Every structure is written in C-alpha cells, then in structure tokens.
Amino acid sequence: MTHALPKIAWIGLGIMGSPMSENLLKAGYDVTGHTLEQDKLDRLTAAGGTAASSVAEAVADADVIITMVPASPQVEAVAYGPGGILDNARAGALLIDMSSITPQTSVDLAAAARDKGIRVLDAPVSGGEPGAIEAVLSIMVGGDQADFDEARPLFEALGRTVVRCGPHGSGQTVKAANQLIVAVNIQACAEAVVFLEKSGVDLAAALDVLAGGLAGSTVLTRKKDNFLRRDFRPGFRIDLHHKDMGIVTDAARTVGAALPVGAVVAQLVASLRAQGDGGLDHSALLRTVERLSGAGA
Fold this sequence. Notes:
alpha/beta
C-alpha cells in the first residue's frame, strides 16, 4: 500500500529540527533526515525515521523537503551546488525552508528553485525549543497560496498558529519583526529582574503578579524560570539572536524604518556575545544588566 502522506526529507536536526521532525513522524509522515552529527541521526532513526548520509540522498525521493539550519550561509550550502537540494530533488518537489534567514536569501532561493521546477516556501517559526517539542510553534510563511495550502496539514503537525504573510521573503520579514520584539521584551524583563532584586522584593512573587497584568507576555511566562534560577542552558542561543538582530536592523535600514530601541538591544546582544556568552540562552541578557548594575557575575 502506498503512503498517502507526502514523503519528507528533513535537513538539519538541531535543537529545533529534531523535535519538529519527530512530530511529523508521530503524525504518520515518512521522514528521511540528514544532519552533520551522527547522534542526531541516531535520534531520528530511534524515533522511526530514516537516516541519509548526504543531502542528495535525503532529497532524492522526497515530495517535500524541509530545511532547518542556523542561517543564510547554511541554507545556501545545502541548497546550491552539485550535492545540494536544487540539483538532486525531483521537479515538482516542494522545498520549505524553516530556518531564520534574510528575506533576500529566501527571494533568491525561490527564483533559483523555480528554474529547476521546484516550489519554495519560507516558513520560519517562533516558540523556541518548548514550542518545537509541544508542536505549538507560530509559523510565518512566504510564498504562493497554492503551495501554502498544500503544506498546511504538515505545518499543523508542527505548530498552532500558521499564517501566510505574503509572497516569497514575507515569512522571513515577519520573523525578523518577531525577533526584534522578543529581544526587546527579554531586555525589559531582565532590567525589571535586577531592579526588583536590588530592591529586596521577592522575585518569584513579583514575576507571578507581573505575568498576570499588562506587563505579562509569552516571553515572561516562558523565561521566568530562567531568570529565577539563572538557568541559561540554550533553548535559543544568543549567537542566533545576534544573527537575527543583524537581519532586522539591516532589513529595516533597507526599507527606511527606524529601530531606535531595537538598535540598542542589538548592541547589548552583541556585547553579551563578545563577552563569551554566545552559547547561552537569550534570557542571559540578564547577565549584561547585572554586569552594568554591579550585581552578579
């Protein structure tokens, strides 16, 4: 009996890619994956997927190819060239890039893929590692409506909020705005935490009541324990948020939008990275505020 669901190739099995691919397996999809770390391939096969030794091997028979890699250079590395997706996927396949990259990279990829008869959606996500594990991601999509409609069941196995935002690159533009809001929000929370602690207030109680009012946010709810415990194990690394702040500040400059607060927070993220904290969770912006305030490490 042939499988009614499309065959999936998944490229990039990191903090986000591994749980997301596993959610597709749970939903009944046939997933063949490729990534650089053998332990991640082992995790995929343990969950019922198939490991491929190369991008070319992974995509050869796929109806849908999903990429989830760190940044534009990695997307270009897996997409282009003789061993890449565009030269090895079959005509008519749908390539869904769920990485967070520059809008222009997405536009260029869609144009290059069109020449090979491959359709493309840019579909970056928000929600971090917990959202990936729980399949409650927000997915912002750029591309053609018909391709979006075809991919919707797959997106609904990965996330809760799935929205087409416009043509190619639109998903990445909305993701850039998302990362701007998240970074500024984390910074505001971090400043509040240091202010509250220096004032001698019970931090756990304060964050509980703040979360219930107008100051409440998904960021505060998700990151409250990180702040309370100074637990900065990465759900979303500072290195990646630094990359994203570069994307949003550059894109905003291109379209003539001023980001005065965003620019300051971009510098604070860059500073944290320069101090060797790039591998920590973005809630570690708290460390910068502590250093500026003469408190903590």
